[in-house]
Amino acid sequence: MFENQTAIASSHSPHLRKPGSKSVSSDLGAGEPGNSVQEGYVFPLTVGEMKASNSPMHTTAIMPSPIFLWRFKVIWFLIWAFTCCKIGWDSVMRMSADLRDLFLYEAFLYYNPLLLVTMMVWLWGVCLWVFSQSTINYAKIFDLDSNHLTHREIWKCSIWMTVIVPTSMTAYLYLYSHGEVALAASQPVILYVAVALVLIFPFDIFYFSSRYFLLRTLWRIALPLQPISFPDFFLADILTSMAKVFSDLERSVCRMVHRQVATIAWFEADSVCGSHSVAIPLVLVIPYIWRLLQCLRQYKDTKEKPTLFNALKYSTAVPVIFLSALKYHVSPDRWTYVYRRLWLFSSVVNSLYSFYWDITRDWDLRCDNIFLI
Fold first, then answer.
1. Which of 124-128, 201-205, 215-219, 271-275 has the lowest mean pLDDT?
2. Could you tell me if residue 21 is inside a domain?
3. pLDDT for res 59
4. Count of domains in the chain?
5. How far is the C-alpha of 172 from the C-alpha of 191, rounded, in Å?
6. What pLDDT was estimated at residue 33?
7. How far, in Å, are 185, 286, 292, 314 from residue 241 at the CA level?
8. Minimal CA–CA distance to 241: which of 309, 291, 277, 307?
9. Torsion of CA 314, 319, 325, 329, to 10 degrees
């Protein structure tokens, strides 16, 4: 009986060790009189455990904090911005005073469309942030899938655009001011080609699903043969507000195609890519024609008469655009006494009609609704 109890006690003894290992005890206070075993607690260690304790500990990878990364990026962004401003300013000051303003106008013409688009992407990210903070289910409203871009991803894209476009512009100014005209002319061309390739890149990188959604929506806008969805007319409305972008984009692409970048041909107002070009009013009127066709398609599907009045609103923009283009195709006297008056009249009609429609229909700020608020 005592042997069994001894065996049980030995099986729970703290001095048990692994076979083949040598036990080492650390007896705290065992030599002091009056201390029991509990007071002088024994810590058994094996040789293997001592070796493990003496060996250097495995270090884990230390990741920098998000605040540190954010500050690091801000510092690099400020350094980049200062460098671009310094190089651009020095490059402009190297040119003669009589060509400086004209050259800056040309550089602004090439890069203004992409700079405005970059600003629009920034503001779109702000809109998505406001939607998310207000718990608005914008993904359902815009008919987006679960892989849609969040405001953080939109801002990431806009940051890259903010860096790439001014960098290309700085390279253009620097190369032209230092006599490298051919290399300078290639800078906006490379930038425009790169943007087009990123949009149509057929592989699953660079937010493929979002790029496909954008291209598909643009295709539906160009050919409104199917029922109009909310993303269709929302994006088409945005396009009607980008008249300056499309005007400068047409001039820029035209000069690139006709090899007029960084040449004296862009100085001629009556050149094929100047203000006399008939392509400019055609490019400007296309978004309004798309919205007009969308309204007619909506009337066909819903039979709602307000869609016809909305179509009439977009049709009033057509005379404004083409009468404005006549300025470069008629004599000054004929423009001043005939077409200029028609242009002013059509502009007033279009502005008043658009203002009334936006207030009462799009924003729903009619008097009866205001009193209800």
1. 271-275
2. no
3. 52
4. 1
5. 11
6. 45
7. 29, 12, 15, 12
8. 291
9. 160
